[in-house]
Specification:
By secondary structure, this protein is an alpha+beta fold. It has three domains: about 280 residues, Endonuclease/exonuclease/phosphatase (Deoxyribonuclease I, Chain A), CATH 3.60.10.10; about 110 residues, Immunoglobulin-like; about 45 residues, no CATH class. The protein has a six-stranded mixed β-sheet, covered by helices on one side.
Length: about 500
């Protein structure tokens, strides 16, 4: 725990190596000792995340220790509320009552600051995952040994575990209403995930084989008029090849229905400045403002032993061959897409400049809070928590002329010396609305801009060099404000580029 407080924990590092290379960023992460919950999103969805908040509850040693308990993250995406819960409940077959109590304690203590979703169960979509620790529980007069259960499993026809699941404690308490009765679990078509010999695929008969690792979900289908929300299961399975734990992780994929996702610019139609450098992971603005909001918002949990993973694909209704209607959009009439749009930054921010200025335009529905802030991020940032520097909006916004009610407001931002970055490279601004310390929303993100040293320009181009049609080595293409041709950086000293993403430049 001490090492993980100083460095990134191994679970986060492992998933980052895969997901961040595919254009995902961490929207939020939270941890309670061995419990970790990571929420990733595709870059194109970042600006549609609202009211992000995390909570935790300790249930170990009567609520004093975090070896057992739960962590959760809630957020809104395209107007729908989502809550993700990762838990590690009380162990051992005979402590069923304690697991039930753990569940009710978590439900009671996880309180959020967002309007009508103060409770886990109030959200449109809830996914509850983790080591729930429910065991197989047979009648005392007919209780098989662990060896007998393993023998029975070896004889079970593939994917058919109905006879054993009749003794599953979790399904029993869901039926009686004692715990998790609000949730649904897809049909289990994989063998018990606990307990295995570490490093192998054989059951450890010191414990009865049980389905301890589960993924449940809940949908409020009719929370809005004329719109029926749904979560469609794509897969629910275990990972038998994973052998470094005595658990086998479980993985689920869902497609959830959200509102029609599109964003209209709050700035009058104006030409956007094109960047002279193409970055593999940088945001690509859609060619149309009516782009359908599709993509993945996966979240990952770990209890330090095994890992449960859910990937949630947020799919617009039109992709499900359901005709979108005006009534459907109006059903979300209480939802407004609050946005902040940064002006294109065509100039270079030189390190040590006394006053770097840019502008941003706020949609009419944006309410400015005292804690609103603007973060400065690497252009290819991997987490919303990885800001390099930040300034509160109140400190960098200059007075602006009053605007007519219902009209966008354009604010000039002035960043003084000391608020910038110290390393040449490419960066971007992100605007966060933060009504209180616990909740934040991403309202806007700028395109990448350059920060350079006055003594050593990041890119030096000889205007006398003429480019050939074959882009032969040693020659440079002229760069102008009106051309769409990307600069040829042949011979560029890459060591002078930003240490964060010099290897991610895709040079044409």
């Amino acid at each position: 725990m001490l090492m993980d407080s100083l460095f990134s924990d191994p679970w986060t590092s492992s998933f980052n190596k895969i997901l961040c290379r595919q254009g995902f960023v961490i929207a939020k992460s939270t941890r309670l000792q061995g419990l970790v919950l990571l929420v990733y999103t595709q870059m194109k969805h970042v600006m549609h995340l609202r009211d992000i908040e995390a909570q935790y509850t300790k249930t170990g040693l009567g609520g004093m220790w975090g070896n057992k308990g739960a962590v959760s993250i809630r957020f809104n995406i395209y107007g729908c509320s989502v809550c993700l819960v990762n838990c590690h409940l009380t162990a051992h077959e005979h402590l069923l009552a304690d697991r039930i109590n753990d569940y009710n304690t978590i439900i009671k203590q996880h309180v959020y600051h967002v309007g009508e979703t103060t409770n886990i169960l109030y959200h449109d979509y809830v996914f509850w995952i983790g080591d729930l620790n429910f065991r197989t529980d047979h009648p005392q007069d007919d209780s098989p040994t662990s060896e007998q259960i393993v023998e029975t499993l070896n004889k079970v026809e593939k994917d058919k575990y109905t006879s054993l699941l009749k003794h599953d404690q979790l399904l029993a308490v869901m039926d009686t209403g004692e715990a998790f009765s609000e949730f649904v679990e897809p049909e289990i078509r994989f063998p018990p995930t606990y307990k295995f010999s570490v490093g192998g695929d054989e059951y450890d008969v010191k414990r009865k084989p049980s389905w301890t690792d589960r993924i449940l979900y809940k949908v409020i289908t009719n929370n809005y008029e004329n719109v029926t929300l749904r979560a469609d299961l794509l897969s629910y399975n275990h990972m038998p090849h994973y052998t470094v734990s005595d658990h086998k992780p479980v993985v689920a994929m869902y497609s959830i229905k959200i509102r029609n996702g599109f964003t209209r610019s709050v700035v009058a139609e104006a030409p956007r400045a094109r960047s002279g450098i193409r970055m593999r992971s940088a945001i690509v603005m859609p060619s149309t403002t009516d782009e359908v909001a599709t993509g993945a918002v996966p979240f990952v949990s770990s209890d330090g032993e095994g890992t449960n993973v859910v990937a949630v694909d947020t799919t617009d209704s039109s992709l499900a061959n359901v005709q979108s209607t005006e009534e459907e959009v109006q059903a979300f009439s209480n939802y407004t897409e609050k946005t902040v749009e940064f002006a294109a930054i065509s100039g270079i921010w030189y390190i040590g400049d006394a006053d770097f200025r840019t502008q941003c335009t706020l949609s009419p529905d944006v309410e400015i809070h005292p804690n609103d802030w603007i973060g400065i991020y690497d252009a290819n940032f991997h987490s919303l928590d990885d800001f390099i520097a930040y300034e509160y909006l109140a400190r960098v916004s200059l007075p602006h002329a009053p605007t007519t009610a219902g009209q966008p407001r354009t604010i000039t931002l002035s960043f003084p010396v000391g608020s910038g970055v110290r390393t040449p490279g490419f960066y971007r601004f992100i605007y966060f609305s933060q009504p209180n310390h616990d909740v934040r929303s991403v309202l806007g993100m700028s395109e990448p801009f350059e920060v350079s040293s006055k003594e050593d320009r990041l890119v030096a181009i000889d205007p006398c060099e003429q480019a050939s049609g074959s882009s032969s080595p040693g020659r440079s293409k002229p760069s102008t404000a009106t051309t769409d041709i990307f600069t040829d950086f042949t011979g560029l000293d890459v060591a002078k580029l930003s240490r964060h993403f010099s290897n991610d430049l895709s040079i044409d």
